[in-house]
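**Protein of interest**
===
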Amino acid sequence: MLIRLRYASTLAPDTTMDDVGLIVERSSIWNLHYGITGVLAVDGGRVMQILEGPGETVDGLYENICRDSRHVGVVILDRNDVAGRHFAEWSMVRRSMAEMLIMSAD
């Protein structure tokens, strides 16, 4: 079963936008290999990410994300079973917060 998980967090004070770029780059490769798709948005120090894929795989990735010291205050906003992917064309991509919210509302 596919799930869609959306979470929010706050960047740690020493995390830079270069760090965020590396996260997206590496995540894109890892996610492609494990069948995860999604989008990441950063607005100031606030982060929101949507992950889609097999439930067990997404849940495992989320556990790793929670342990990542580059951000704090990680909280799940929602986690739902889905019939299909909303972000099927992206193993991971960075978009603005507003753009991601508009895309996820479609």
